Amino acid sequence: MMLPVVALLLALGFIHGVTWPGMLLAGAAVAVVLMTAEMIARSLPGKPAQLVRAAEALSRGEPVPIRPSGDEEAAQLAATLAELSAQLGSRQHLLEKTVESIRDPVVVADEHRMIVIVNAAARRLYRVEPGFDILTGVRTFQNYYADGTTVMPIAETPMARALRGEDVDDCELIVKPLLPEPAVYLVANARPLRDDAGNLRGAVIVLRDVTAERQAHQALVESEQVAQAIVRTALDAFVQTDQDGIILDWSPQAETLTGWTRSEAVGYRVVELVFPEEVRVAHRQRITRFLQETAAGGMGMRYETASVHRDGHRFYVEVSLNALRRGDGWIINSFVRDVTQRRHAEEQLIQAQKTESLGRLTGGIAHDFNNMLTVITGTIEILADGVKDNPQLAAIAKLISDAADRGAQLTSSLLAFARKQPLQPAETDVNDLIGEVVRLLSQTLGSQTEIRTELSRSAWLAFVDRSQLGAALVNLAINARDAMPEGGTLTFATRNTQLGIPEAVAHGVERAGDHLVIEVTDTGIGISPSHLEKIFDPFFSTKEVGQGTGLGLSMVFGFVKQSGGGIEVKSEQGHGTVFRIYLPKADGTAQRAAEEDDLPVRGGNETILCVEDDATIRDYVTGQLESLGYKVLAATNADAALAIVDRGTAFDLLFTDIVMPGSMNGRQLADTLMAGRPALRVLFTSGYSDGVLPAQQVRGGHGIPLLTKPYRRSELARMLRRCLDLQVDFQGDPVPQPYSVQPDLERFLRENPPEKN
After folding, report:
1. Structure confidence by residue, pLDDT tens digits, 315-331
2. Closest CA to 197 of 55, 341, 429, 31
3. CA dihedral for 194, 195, 196, 199, sign (positive or negative)
4. Which among 55, 321, 501, 576 has the fewest CB atoms less than 10 Å away?
């Protein structure tokens, strides 16, 4: 009959972590008191039956009131029993309230499988009351294993196992009420209850509700899965490190970007894996500063840096950093994006802006300088004719002429780099041009330099200025010779290629499509990385002072870019250099370069409207034209020329400078006059057109001729006759001339002389 009280004590002690010896000691003390009361009652056979009944009730833990009797001894005993009954009742009530107030479900069953104690939490969970048979009672709930799908047999429940004498620790199960209520995740601990003799008298189970913990854990798992899915599908590479730079996570995109697999990367220092040696110290300093700023409330960092692939090639990345506190340290999350192509595009933009600035600077200088050179080169011819019989004066005149030519070449180089030089592109057979360049170089480079060609027989025609391309190839060849002081091999090669948009951007080509590639390779000393970055800058040169202007490669660069192509250089010190030029493919059939007219200078009697704002040039040109027999109408600008036309003065050709002050430039003047006279012949002249006259500018089906300053008297005469002799109809279109094979036959015989018998 002592089971309820003893069980209550054991359950309370079990719940509050009291050791089994302590709980047994407390239970034994209560049992001794109860048994003492019962023994006293039974040892007094002569005492009233009321006292015996009180003692028996007390032994069962029931408070029983005792009426006083006349026996003093019995009265004292009754009083003692009454006090003891009150104390036990108070303590039992306290124990019951304590168990009832526990938030976790508590259930106590006796050896007959009947529930004797069930607190409020257990009643809410199981919907059971004391007296419920835990094995055969009608259930309103179902137990499941931790997987949530496998039903737990009644015999395997923690209470059933404890009633068989087992100790059950941290058994996970799920209780699903039959009513439409959510499942409850529980962790159960159960113990068998035994008396002093070791006999099984029942069992107690305490269950801890871990539903909120499991839901939080599941939410964390799902959040982690979402985060991993984002990392796996992100376009950027994801790298996670600790504060010391040890790699903790490495996404598939990071594998693709760097060439290192996840298994190879995790556990290594990221700075030693993907950063070049020269930026590692800077990277460590940047991370240290980033963590300091983050600790002070910073939100992140973004920067660009060089990186190195597993195969050794370098590329540029943009790194976005954020950090999370973990214990006493930090976890650093990095999103990495390849920005190599964007960086190249930015560098090309910077180069273009630099070129534009230089073009604006040199343009104005070139215009005035070429005007002066035109007068010098023109008048020196006259002086040379006058002193040709005096060797000493003739030598001086030649020195002046050579100096003027060098000045013109310098100005041309500046304009070429600035992409302001006037070009005359045409469909060009590059293989044929390289053949001419090789024949020229074989006589100038010396016997120590071996020249080879690897020209594709199916090489496309290129749309390019033939003379400027020849000058560029000669320039590259001279640089190659200088890079091979002990001699070596110079190779010219051609091939066809098709560039997509990414390849066009990477090679610096204006647009995607078909291109002809020219490679100029030498076996020289190579170019250092520091010089390689500046090789196309104007006035940069590795040669000694006085050995060059530093404009050679910048001129080549500007010419190629102005032609719509691209140029790149690959070099390694001690292993030679390769220059690779990309030129747009031409459409149609090759047009052979016009051969210089070997006939004597011819003039004429036509009338020329000459428009030139520079008085010195105007006087010089007027004199030259009149010496050739032409009649000249001189005008200082477009307005003066229109005034002459408005007076009805007749003329046969408009010879005008392009860049002029006033209401319109030379091109606008020509367009205005040609609107009423489509058949009007026009010859432009300029040393700097400032983009007013594009290279592809055409009129009436034929190209508008341009005489580049500075020019000589013979060039002026030849261009005038070429324009005046061109037959055009009333709309300005060329009149077809009868075709003759005689010029082609004469050219063929010159190139292939018949063998002598």
Report:
1. 999 999 988 888 888 99
2. 31
3. negative
4. 501
